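Q: Hi! New to this. If I give you a protein sequence and the SMILES for NAP, can you show me the bound structure?
A: Yes, paste them in.
Q: Okay, here:
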Amino acid sequence: MVRQLQSVFILGGYGNTGRLMARLFLTNTPVRVIIAGRNIHSVVQFQRQLQQDYSGDRVGVMSVDAADESGVAQALAGVDLLVVASSTTDQAATIARAALQAGCDYLDINLGSDKLRQLRAMENEIQATGRCFVTEGGFHPGLPAAMIRTAAEKMDRLEAAIVGSVIGIDWAKLTFSPATLTEFVQELMDYQSLEWVNGHWQKMRWNQAVRKVDFGGDFGIRSVYPMWLPELEPLPQSIPSLREAGFYVGGFNPVVDYFLLPLLWMALKIAPQRLSNPAGRLFLWGLQRYSKPPFGTVLLLQAVGKKADEPARFHLRLEHEDGYFLTAAGAVATALQILNGTRRKPGLWLQGNFVDTDRLWMDLKTMGVAVSASNAIDRN
Ligand SMILES: NC(=O)c1ccc[n+]([C@@H]2O[C@H](COP(=O)([O-])OP(=O)(O)OC[C@H]3O[C@@H](n4cnc5c(N)ncnc54)[C@H](OP(=O)(O)O)[C@@H]3O)[C@@H](O)[C@H]2O)c1
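A: Thanks. Here is the predicted structure of the protein with NAP bound:
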């Protein structure tokens, strides 16, 4: 059980994801929440809103810059879990060292190969100090590998597991820290279209890689493309029967996909440092100006394999109207398993490979995510 005396420190606590996480912690647990970021006015303003909505003295504030290791370590004194909801992938090692210094557990929702390298370089130290560090939390990364692990549990032999996504966000309603826009651009440059095909991670030709997925509801049939996530990497080893697997995303909107992205990609190849800020702003402009309804986020797992020697299928579908809510809920549901000790163990873990999946789907449902699963055995 998560205890009343436990405290969770949310770095980036007034950002788009951080503020949803703060509310989910306050609604679903008795913990104390500390909202942190560089801007003291934003921190205090959000604290006031939360104090109006939640009774008891459960919301603290801190003004910290992730780049200041000793400042972050001091701010973390007495904290049980640090949640990194800030766009601070460049400072991952600094933040992680501060957490180790303060002796607290760690969960981040960031993506990026450089961040993972920074944390993996500290893996032995994390293990030796007995801390539990979970990275790549949220929804993507965070949920696709967990969905595939669930399919493997439902079948005797899982052969193919494809997770498709619709990420329809009303970007015009959102504002971002400049650091987040720079990260968007880094993520685009990091994109890899690998999928697991016939026993190898492969980059297929574009026309072979594209898949049509029926997401149902308002979204219907959509084309999606592979997006490699580090959490997928261990799956073929833990599920040896798997011959086909991957995570697939749709585009943003035609102007961004066919005009802006190729342009930004070329510009960033030429001058990555100088152009990353303007590229981030231009990318956001394209998202805000041209993204159209229906808005909403769906993750759909389609798996095939064998159950009791019969061909079998399993589908798992997650939906929420707000993609940022799904990110926040995925991370908070994982945080609960660290705080209540059921999953907590020393080391560095990726959320998609770490989390107890049955409990995760239950907690997501409780938080308001539509979760549905269906099994079928194909009998001729
Ligand atoms: N895993 C997933 O499914 C998923 C989904 C969506 C987003 N994300 C990731 O989540 C992160 C946050 O995204 P968002 O949309 O919530 O961003 P956002 O709304 O722009 O919020 C970012 C927050 O980070 C804070 N911040 C930035 N630099 C900081 C620093 N040096 N020290 C302390 N705080 C700092 C910002 O405050 P100040 O600038 O005022 O300090 C702000 O509160 C990004 O890394 C994004 O890639 C992950």
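A: The chain has a mean pLDDT of 95. Let me know if you'd like me to explain how to read the tokens.
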